[in-house]
């Protein structure tokens, strides 16, 4: 609607909250126009990944027919609390109980799979990963998630070549964007010929070691030793952003771009993170510029529209007297 109706009407809507007043048309007419737009494949093209994600979202069984949903939710909540306290075996036990009511639920199986890996129960984790990978009813996205975990397990088992081959095959599989970024990063790390750089990064990305502030210190050191490696700067930027160190994160992500960060998916995510941090810090002009860069790098129409919306928000706040 920003493209067809312009920014002024959007600003009026933002200020009033009245859709009909802002656009001068009945809500029903606006909904019909939106439906026509969404159904137009020339304007809203769908990739294989888009269609896989849609099936993943809408083909899952209804939650209303499941047994003891409230009890299961309670166990899952308790498992999350146990995991947060480092009680990994207790988390596994609770998630096993939750899964017992529907042993074929792919989301519950994947949750248990993650808990098994965290608890170091790698044999059980392999069995669970392979069962989801072999289950056609789990859907392509869930099977890909299980395959990623299986590749992780190969590395944790010391089978680096097997892990490398698995991650390389996964690059072309349908999956959500966050998973694809992780797979691309790991596949790229396996191609680095410098062990002093590749091994600590693989341990960090796959094994999660070190974590927190210690991880940032390691990444800072690697960025000094290998200043021209774009992936080191990218990972440092993401870690700094997660720790709330926006200035360091922005500088690191800028260094990643300067050093030729690729592929486009990682560069787009870098621009998105820089935009979000700038917006959070009240730097609306910079935020708009980064959202515009992210939009130019995106190939998905829906994502492009999302970035366009954020550009409009940034423009709105940049023009606000409070931001002057």
Describe it.
- The protein has helices at residues 2-5, 7-16, 19-23, 27-39, 48-58, 69-84, 88-100, 106-118, 122-133, 140-156, 160-170, 177-190, 195-207, 212-225, 230-242, 246-258, 264-280, 284-297, 301-319.
- It has 324 residues and is mainly α.
- It has a domain at 1-44.
- How large a portion of the residues is in β-strands, by DSSP E? under 5%
Rounded radius of gyration (Å): 23 Å
Give me the count of strands. Answer: 0
Question: What is the residue-mean pLDDT, rounded to a whole number?
Answer: 89
- Helical stretch tally: 19
Order of helices and strands: HHHHHHHHHHHHHHHHHHH
Segments where pLDDT lies below 50 for 5+ residues?
63-67
Level of helix content? over 70%
Gap between N and C termini: 28 Å
């Amino acid at each position: 609607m920003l493209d067809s109706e312009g920014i002024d009407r959007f600003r009026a809507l933002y200020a009033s909250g009245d859709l009909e007043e802002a656009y001068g048309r009945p809500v029903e007419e606006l909904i019909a126009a939106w439906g026509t737009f969404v159904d137009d494949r020339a304007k809203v093209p769908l990739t294989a990944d888009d269609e896989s994600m849609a099936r993943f979202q809408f083909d899952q069984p209804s939650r209303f027919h499941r047994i003891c949903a409230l009890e299961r939710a309670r166990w899952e909540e308790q498992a999350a609390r146990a995991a947060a306290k480092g009680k990994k075996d207790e988390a596994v036990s609770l998630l096993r109980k939750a899964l017992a009511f529907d042993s074929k639920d792919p989301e519950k199986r994947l949750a248990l799979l993650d808990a098994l890996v965290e608890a170091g129960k790698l044999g059980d984790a392999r069995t669970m990963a392979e069962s989801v990978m072999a289950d056609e009813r789990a859907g392509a996205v869930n099977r890909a998630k299980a395959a990623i975990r299986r590749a992780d397990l190969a590395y944790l088992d010391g089978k680096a070549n097997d892990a490398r081959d698995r991650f390389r095959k996964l690059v072309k599989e349908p999956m959500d964007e966050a998973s694809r970024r992780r797979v691309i990063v790991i596949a790229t790390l396996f191609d680095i010929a410098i062990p002093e750089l590749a091994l600590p990064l693989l341990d960090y990305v796959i094994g999660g070691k070190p974590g927190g502030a210690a991880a940032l210190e390691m990444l800072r050191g690697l960025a000094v030793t290998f200043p021209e490696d774009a992936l080191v700067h990218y990972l440092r930027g993401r870690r700094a952003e997660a720790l709330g160190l926006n200035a360091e994160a922005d500088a690191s992500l800028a260094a990643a771009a300067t050093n030729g960060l690729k592929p486009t998916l990682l560069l787009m995510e870098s621009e998105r993170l820089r935009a979000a941090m700038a917006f959070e810090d009240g730097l609306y002009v910079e935020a708009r510029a980064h959202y515009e860069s992210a939009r130019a790098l995106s190939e998905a129409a829906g994502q492009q529209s999302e970035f366009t919306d954020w550009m409009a928000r940034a423009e709105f706040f940049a023009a606000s007297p409070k931001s002057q």
